[in-house]
Structure formats: C-alpha cells, structure tokens
Design brief:
Elements: E1 3-4, E2 10-20, E3 25-36, E4 40-46, E5 57-61, H1 68-73, E6 100-102, E7 105-110, H2 127-131, E8 140-146, E9 149-152, E10 156-161, E11 168-171, E12 184-194, E13 197-201, E14 217-218, E15 242-252, E16 256-261
Parallel strand pairs: 2-12
Antiparallel strand pairs: 1-4, 2-3, 3-9, 3-10, 4-8, 5-10, 6-7, 7-8, 11-16, 12-15, 13-16, 14-15
C-alpha cells in the first residue's frame, strides 16, 4: 500500500505498475481504494537518484484513463485475486514546496525527509516516524493530497530518476496507516511490471503468510491487444508482455524490488 499522513479506516485493492523508462528513470502507476474521515496525504517513498531536485520527478495525468488497471487485467487468463537536525541529512529550503495539479490530485515532490517541514502539517508524516525506518534517511517522496470519505482514486502516475541498478524496479509497498510502523502488514496488492521476466524480489514472507511462491503470471498477449496504450501517458510499452503478481495476506512491512531477466 503506502503511507498516509493521518489515520485511515481502510485501504484496499492496491494496484501498482512499474517499468523502466529512459536509462536511470522509472515509471510508476498506483491506484487503490481508501476510506478516511478527513483530508489526508498519500506519501510514496522513492529511491530517487541523488541529489534530488526539481527534475527528479515528472507527474503524469491518467484522469482520462481510469480503467488503466481493469484493461491491464484483461491480458491475463484469469482475474487477479481480490485483493529537526538529526540523521536525515540535508537542509530544507525555507520556500514552500510547489503543489502541482495532476488530474484530480494536488501533487508535490519532497526531495528529503527534512523538506516535509515545507508542507502543510496535515499532509506530512512526523520525522520521528521516519526515524523508525532508517533505510529512508536519504529517500525522496511523492505526496498526493486526497479528499475525505470512501473513494477509489483514478490511477496516479509519474516518472522518476532512480538510483537503482539497471533492470531493478521499485514498488512502494511499505505501510504507515496510523502513524506507527509495524513489522508486518495486511496486503491486498496486485503488482504489474514490464521489461523482462522477474527473477528476484525483496523477501516479504512471514510465518503467517499464506502459502505463496510469489510466482508472476505472464500476459497472454501484448498491451496493444487489450489496453488503450495511447491513453497511458507513455507508461506502458504496447509491444512488451506484462507480468502480474497477487499479494494477499500478512507479509513483512517492506518495499518490494524486482530484478528482471532480459531476453
């Protein structure tokens, strides 16, 4: 799922698509259903190339392609299962972070944890919370402002400069829904990727997880046969097969990485 600046009642049916873009850049498309009592921000940690700045991210609007993931699922034989100063480095600028209108969202790029001070307090996670996740001390963040009530958001999309090695893709799946960091989390995710057969991933297994060998299903055709790739803002390559993985149950609370087998 993702991180929220305030408590939410529920988050479900999270779907995430990843693909390498130009060298050193990655596409990410994200959609979920959430239920909240008040306006909140959804925050996606990103392993952005350092130093991070204004060119590190390019937001893309999929407002007019709300069926992005529904169409993507048509390529598979069966539907997916339901599913302050300190260790953080850097000195924040005193300027307020720029908010950008992207479809039905206001979005912002936060270069470092310290830069959360430049956001409205309603839309940040306190620095001590990030302190419980030390691996994020040099991450950047994409922040999306969401309205209250129960909603399925249209797909959120962007391209970002990644520091990961070529062929490695990043899926933001760490959970913070109540201001606390838990060792395990309940997953209701479907992950998708293009660019080659996945051959490795972050270990998410937990003793309470259902029996699941984390095997990826391959689409039976290419996107030009079942998607409207021209409406996908360049995120989908119409010539490449898509791979899909369902994660439902209790897993370790981690982000997910894959390494692709090309050819």
């Amino acid at each position: 799922m993702c991180c929220f600046s305030r408590s939410v009642r529920s988050v479900s049916r999270t779907r995430i698509f990843a693909r390498s873009a130009a060298p050193g850049r990655q596409y990410l498309v994200y959609q979920m259903r959430y239920d909240a009592d008040e306006e909140v921000a959804m925050i996606l940690p990103l392993p952005a190339a350092l130093p991070a700045g204004g060119n590190s991210i390019r937001f893309l609007s999929l407002k007019d392609y709300a069926s992005f993931f529904d169409d993507m699922d048509k390529g598979f034989p069966q539907p997916a299962e339901n599913f302050g100063p300190g260790p953080f480095g850097g000195s924040p600028s005193e300027e307020t972070l720029k908010m950008e209108s992207v479809g039905n969202f206001d979005a912002s790029f936060v270069p470092t944890i310290r830069d959360f001070e430049r956001l409205d307090p309603r839309f940040r996670i306190p620095e001590p919370t990030w302190g419980k996740l030390p691996d994020y001390h040099d991450f950047s963040f994409a922040v999306f402002q969401l309205k209250a009530d129960a909603k399925t958001v249209h797909p959120i999309a962007f391209e970002f400069a990644t520091r990961l090695p070529e062929g490695e893709l990043f899926f933001p799946t760490v959970h913070i829904h109540d201001g606390e960091v838990h060792e395990t989390a309940d997953y209701d995710h479907t992950l998708y990727q293009q660019g080659g057969q996945p051959r490795g991933q972050t270990r998410l297994r937990h003793e309470e997880s259902p029996v699941d060998d984390l095997s990826w299903a391959e689409s039976r055709g290419i996107p030009v046969q079942f998607m409207q790739a021209g409406r996908a803002a360049g995120t989908v390559d119409p010539r490449l097969h898509i791979y899909r993985l369902s994660l439902k149950g209790k897993y370790l609370n981690r982000d997910f990485h894959t390494v692709q087998r090309i050819g």
